[in-house]
Write a structure and sequence with these properties.
globular; single chain; Ribose 5-phosphate Isomerase B, Chain: A; 7 helices; alpha/beta
């Protein structure tokens, strides 16, 4: 027995005087909390980098898609764009040369995707699809973008600068990039595309 008669300091009924927290303790606690938060933020940024660091997007346009191309490159932050041109507005430029450049780049760089933009998206898709192994899809909605990836394993998204607004184009691009090919019965059908 210690202290008052009959009362043990080790019993649960004992009352322990609270320790007053000094400013130094308060500062240390705040600093630790701040460090934890910053640590979590760094971890999240690191995970985001690891997820997206290998995502490479080849992009190109003619004069009909130049404005939309620049918009998408500025707004879509989840990939590394490689701009194949055209770089300036010129009504005399031709879409086939850009489509062929993009197709060749994607075939050489496995696992990458492409975005081609002209006035309607049709000319770009026709030129790109001349290359075996390229599956260029014209998409006017997020549903089309999703299905082109899930069922057709499309590797180039073609957009029409005169047919969709910038907000919709961004949503379509986001859906196209984030959707995965389902494989299974679709694999057989995709293999049947080539002549």
């Amino acid at each position: 027995m210690i202290g008052n008669k009959g009362i043990s300091p080790f019993r649960s009924s004992s009352v322990v005087a609270p320790v007053e927290m000094t400013n130094e303790h308060k500062y240390s606690r705040q600093t630790l909390t701040g460090r934890r938060r910053r640590g979590r933020a760094r971890t999240n940024r690191r995970l985001n980098y690891l997820i997206h660091k290998r995502m490479k997007l080849y992009i190109g346009s003619d004069h009909g898609g130049l404005e939309l191309k620049h918009y998408l490159m500025g707004k879509f932050k989840e990939g590394e764009f490689i701009d194949l041109g055209h770089f300036d507005y010129d009504k005399k430029d031709d879409y086939p040369e850009i489509a062929h450049q993009a197709a060749e780049a994607i075939l050489e760089d496995a696992g990458t995707l492409g975005i081609l933009i002209c006035s309607s998206g049709l000319g770009m898709s026709m030129a790109a699809n001349r290359h075996p192994g390229i599956r260029a899809a014209v998409c006017l909605s997020t549903k089309m973008a999703k299905l082109s990836r899930q069922h057709n394993n499309a590797n180039i998204l073609c957009l029409g600068g005169k047919f969709i607004n910038k907000g919709r184009a961004l949503r379509i691009l986001n859906k196209f990039v984030k959707t995965k090919f389902e494989g299974g019965r679709h694999q057989r059908r995709v293999e049947g595309i080539e002549i």
